[in-house]
Amino acid sequence: MNYEEMLARLCALPGPSGFEERVTAAAAELLRPLVDQVYFTCPGSVVGVRRCDRENAPRLLLDAHLDEIGLIVTGHEEGFLRFAPLGGVDPRMLPDREVTILTDPPVHGVVACLPPHVQTAEDMDKSLPIKDLYIDVGLPQEEAEKRIPIGTPATYRGGCAPLGEHLLCGKALDDRCGFAVLLDVLERLQGKELDVDLYVLGSTQEETHSTGAVTAAYELAPAMCVAVDVTHGDSPDASKNETFQLGGGPVIGVGPNCAKSMSGSLKALAKRLDMPAQIEVMSGSSGTNAWPIQVSREGVATAVLSIPERYMHTPVEVVSKKDLEDTAKLLAAFVERCGEEDKPC
């Protein structure tokens, strides 16, 4: 898997929660050569199915969400746009930020900001609430209302590019990098016999309510699920007890949202593969799709496998290519092992 090329393609596509059509369509085309069937669920998630042709084989679900945080237009004021967040948007990231308004064709905009020359020292130290911000699209009121109706979504402008030799930086790496890992897993499993029917889910609306994962899990009724998402990466100003090293390997979740047998299998496999791995204690909700999937129908055995990421929910999220490769390698080994009668998950 060439992660640099794959994520440049995926992250450039706009797909805020509830408006993921462009990215799910691309994800479907990427899945087609690797699976037996591809289809879309009612809420728009994409599902790839690789069957093992064993009668009554257990179903293993691998999930990574395709949506990203974004904005939605709520009104017009002298040609400027009022807006609200889609998902956990940090208001500190917004002033002077370039955005793409998802009209047809798209419109370029910038979030308005006051230059420092006309701010007081007190104002410069404050973060403006989103309700006090506007998007400038360079249009008069009448044209803005006509071209950009209320309810139009927007995303940060940009994609994904290398940062130094080993890192990647861009928007929507949460969680397009997780979906790229799932594609890598499928590539690594080509030509290998499995004992499970494998379902790969590119889910929608995780950033707002996990709707895509909730509905897909109900439909598929898997025996097991591994949710692949991001977790907080290390940086000089972050707590060492609450972050994980970029390049330090995949992060295996442990806690009530994670089946002990599955977490244990992942830890044992990492050791067998002589692969660095990190452990994240999740004392409650993991903050991933694994939380609602775990209680779907009569319950699903879940695991959480995370990729360390700096600057989550910003336009400059950063991950390590090595962590992506190691996460795919570990997860592919886990899938190969699943379903064997003498080696239960």
In short:
It contains nine helices and 17 strands. The chain has helices spanning 3-12, 21-31, 121-124, 141-147, 173-188, 211-220, 260-272, 290-294, 321-337, and strands at 37-40, 46-50, 59-65, 70-77, 80-86, 98-101, 107-111, 135-136, 153-156, 160-163, 167-170, 197-203, 224-232, 251-254, 278-281, 301-309, 317-320.
Description:
There is one protein chain. With 345 residues, the chain is of the alpha+beta class. Helices cover 27% and strands 26% of the residues. The chain is built from 9 helices and 17 strands. The chain has helices at 3-12, 21-31, 121-124, 141-147, 173-188, 211-220, 260-272, 290-294, 321-337; strands at residues 37-40, 46-50, 59-65, 70-77, 80-86, 98-101, 107-111, 135-136, 153-156, 160-163, 167-170, 197-203, 224-232, 251-254, 278-281, 301-309, 317-320. The strands form 3 sheets. It has an 8-stranded mixed β-sheet, with helices on both faces. Strands 5-4-9-6-7-8 form a 6-stranded antiparallel β-sheet. Strand 4 and strand 5 (80-86) form a beta hairpin. Helix 1 crosses helix 5 and helix 7 crosses helix 9. The radius of gyration is 21 Å and the shape is globular. The two termini are 26 Å apart. The mean pLDDT is 93.
